[in-house]
Write a structure and sequence with these properties.
Chain A contains twelve helices and ten strands. By secondary structure, chain A is of the alpha+beta class. In chain A, helix 4 runs parallel beside helix 7. Chain A starts with 28 loop residues before the first helix and ends in a 7-residue tail after the last helix. The chains are: A alpha+beta, B mainly alpha.
């Protein structure tokens, strides 16, 4: 133990001579951090949620083999449900007997293909108006949507085929006299049943040409667990395919930014001096570049017309303008590390630049980068959603969560599920990444478990 | 201090020049012909048009002219809106965006301050939990979804009240401003709340807080006089990025709420590829943001003497 240091102790070791093995005290830093992260319940839950989402994005489209772009206008804006049946009806039905008397009445089944109404002629009527309301009318001025005005006849009847949905409607018929005065003569509340016309069922391959006898019976339809959008496209399929787009952009862009930033910031921080100044000045200016303009120029350069989908320019713009943030982070970290005693000690032992970078700089920068990555990913997902929302990113029929939101907002008041599905997916993903990022930040903080 | 301010201003000017140059280079590097139209143009007309727009001159000369025009605030004429100067579009619509933005920032700053202090005061108890939940929502729900939900809420409120309490969209009265500004400021507010709460909790174990407590000061006084001023400092640094976020967020909010601000015109120009408007507004926005960042830097320098000496020396 009593060893007086001599200058020879501080000479670099010869190649091939083993350096004294360091003593490992306890677990490695990464293992301790991992243990702290797992102990953090919200962070662990977020990690699991994200893994599940990732698995769904990768495997989902294989398991749920529904074309996300297939339109079915007859099945538009359906609410989420697991089992779906519909009444198989003929494309055009012969006039059904309705009987006489009883005021406003429905002929045959009321279904989403057609609702047939009949009522008794009113003596002094010159014309009739038919109204449809989704709620109970409060008074004679609140009858709902005027559907038609009909001339008076012996047996007045009306067939409603306009945008019917499987729900309750209140129909009203008003008679107009010679002077044009209107009087409500009948009101009828009825529940409309989901139906599918013969031709549509044939097109979907649900029935054979020989099965016309099944008209009038219930048909099991392909289920839409998350409902359909305004063009009748399956939302689950769109959500799964959209996850691929959104998560791909969300992961790829920050990952590429981080790698670029690691190289740039690492060189700047390690080299220092004038090279560092020059590199960081470039980073400062790149930050100031206008992102949207850059995006537009790249789209033009890629030959993508307005209103077309373009993932490549989106990704490229995000990477080209996004790397300075991780680069600054890495540079600051490397600068701090460079003057750490253990790095100087390693240099004293004869470690070269590649060894220092690989063994000492990178592992220590990795933690910080991991945290910044977990915050950059949600922001990239937001950017994709925002760009798709204003029509600069992914455009229908290609699904992404952002473009699905854009579609959903149009029908938000009548069919909220079309907006809720993609919005919840974006929000859950972004929230999970934020919580995970916080957890990582705490877990990598060697100051311990004070908070 | 003067040296610091001048340095920041010079740096800002350099950045604006860089943005303008990058815009010019980008616009000329991209393939395409600005005079390419559906109509066939005879060579004479084409020459005249090129002369009118200065396209017949060598590129360096065009560049100098472009810089000169920009310096005088002349961004050219819109491609799609007849005889409308880009400068006029900016002059007419930017005040709307600016008003909305200022309101949103004020809302965010005030709300963030109150919520951050409350969260730190009640750390771990239910008001804190509630605030953290709201912050999580504000950070994780996209702006356009919040805007759409806010519209839905107004609609329900009006239907419930039986009268139009608040307008769903549009521009004109103070009531039109209220909800869009709140929606626009929400994400920034959530961010500020989180930052301030964390910073306040950090000060809990600071030496000066222990000293103040030892002097016998009340917790309220320690919070307001000692902890808050120190905790607010990091919040000031994020004001620059926050202004940028609110500017970008304004595009969406203006679109959803049908507000005639510059952001909406910018998005429209983007969709119609109205190049002069895109270039003009981009450089304008770029200059505006740089100015804001420089102002925030100066304010930060005023507040924190350490920064001033460190960066002034650079």
């Amino acid at each position: 133990m009593n060893h007086a240091p001599v200058p020879a102790d501080f000479l670099p070791l010869e190649r091939g001579v083993d350096a004294p093995e360091p003593l490992h005290a306890g677990a490695s830093q990464a293992r301790r951090a991992w243990r702290r992260l797992v102990a953090n319940r919200p962070a662990l839950a977020s990690l699991l949620v994200l893994l599940a989402l990732l698995a769904a994005a990768i495997a989902g489209p294989w398991l749920w083999r529904v074309d996300p772009a297939a339109q079915q206008l007859g099945q538009a804006s359906l609410a989420p449900s697991l089992t779906r049946r519909a009444l198989l009806v003929a494309d055009t039905e012969p006039p059904a007997a309705c009987g006489d008397g009883g005021g406003l009445r429905v002929c045959g089944n009321a279904h989403t293909v057609a609702v047939r109404l009949a009522w008794d002629a009113v003596a002094d009527a010159h014309a009739y108006r038919v109204y449809r309301h989704e709620l109970a009318p409060r008074d004679a001025h609140d009858l709902g949507v005027p559907l038609a005005e009909l001339g008076a006849g012996a047996a007045p009847a009306f067939e409603d085929r306009v945008g019917l949905e499987a729900r309750r409607y209140v129909y009203s018929v008003a008679a107009l006299d010679a002077s044009g005065t209107m009087r409500v003569t009948g009101t009828l509340a009825l529940a409309v049943e989901q139906a599918i016309p013969w031709s549509a069922a044939r097109r979907l391959g649900l029935v054979d040409a020989s099965e016309r006898a099944r008209i009038g019976s219930q048909l099991r339809l392909p289920a839409h667990p998350l409902g359909t959008d305004y063009l009748g496209r399956d939302l689950l399929a769109r959500a799964l395919h959209g996850a691929r787009t959104s998560l791909f952009v969300g992961f790829a862009a920050p990952l590429a930014c981080t790698l670029l930033g690691l190289a740039w910031g690492g060189v700047a921080g390690y080299a220092g001096g004038r090279l560092d100044d020059a590199l960081m000045r470039v980073a400062d200016f790149v930050v100031a570049l206008p992102f949207l303009l850059f995006m537009i120029l790249l789209r033009v350069a890629f030959g993508i017309a307005p209103g077309e989908s373009g993932v490549a320019p989106l990704l490229l713009a995000m990477v080209l303008l996004g790397w300075p943030a991780p680069a600054r982070l890495v540079r600051a970290q490397v600068l701090a590390l460079r003057s750490q005693p253990y790095v100087q000690a390693a240099r004293l032992f004869g470690a070269g630049t590649p060894w220092l970078l690989a063994r000492h700089m990178t592992p220590n920068v990795l933690g910080v980068l991991l945290v910044s990555l977990s915050f950059a990913i949600p922001s990239a997902i937001f950017t994709e959603a925002f760009l798709s929302f204003i029509g600069l990113g992914v455009v229908p029929p290609v699904p992404s969560w952002g473009s699905m939101c854009n579609d959903g907002i149009r029908a938000m008041f009548a069919h909220p599920h079309e907006l809720v599905v993609p919005a919840v997916l974006i929000s859950v993903t972004v929230l999970a990444f934020n919580v995970l990022g916080d957890g990582l930040h705490d877990a990598l903080d060697e100051r311990g478990d004070t908070r | 201090m003067l040296r610091y301010v001048l340095g920041r201003l010079l740096y800002g000017l350099l950045t604006v020049w860089f943005i303008a140059t990058a815009t010019f280079v980008g616009m000329h590097a991209v393939p395409g012909d600005p005079l390419l139209d559906a109509r066939a143009v005879s060579p004479e007309i084409r020459r005249n048009l090129e002369r009118r727009y200065g396209l017949d001159q060598p590129l360096p000369l065009q560049y100098l002219r472009y810089l000169g025009n920009m310096a005088r605030g002349d961004f050219g004429v819109s491609f799609t809106q007849h005889n409308r100067e880009v400068t006029d579009i900016i002059r007419e619509h930017f005040p709307v965006s600016a008003l909305l933005g200022v309101l949103a920032i004020s809302f965010a700053a005030l709300g963030g301050l109150v919520a951050g202090v409350l969260g730190a005061l009640y750390a771990g108890r239910w008001p804190d939990t509630l605030i953290r939940l709201l912050v999580a929502l504000g950070i994780s729900v996209p702006g356009f979804v919040i805007a759409a939900l806010a519209q839905l809420a107004i609609l329900r409120l009006n239907a419930w009240g039986g009268v139009a309490l608040l307008p769903v969209a549009g521009w004109g009265s103070a009531a039109h401003l209220l909800v869009p500004a709140a929606v626009l400021g929400l994400a920034t507010m959530a961010f500020l709340t989180r930052l301030l709460r964390a910073a306040l909790l950090e000060t809990q174990s600071a030496d000066y807080v222990r000293t103040a407590r030892a002097k016998g000061l009340t917790p309220a006084r320690i919070l307001l006089r000692h902890r808050l001023p120190n905790a607010v400092l990091p919040a000031v640094t994020v004001l620059g990025p926050a202004i940028a976020a609110i500017t970008t967020g304004g595009f969406v909010v203006e679109l959803v709420f049908a507000i005639p601000g510059l952001g909406r015109y910018f998005v429209q120009a983007v969709q119609q590829l109205d190049y002069t408007v895109i270039m003009g507004t981009t450089v304008f926005y770029g200059a505006f943001l740089v100015l804001m960042v420089v102002l925030v830097d100066i304010v930060y320098g005023l507040l924190d003497p350490r920064i001033r000496s460190a960066q002034g020396a650079r």
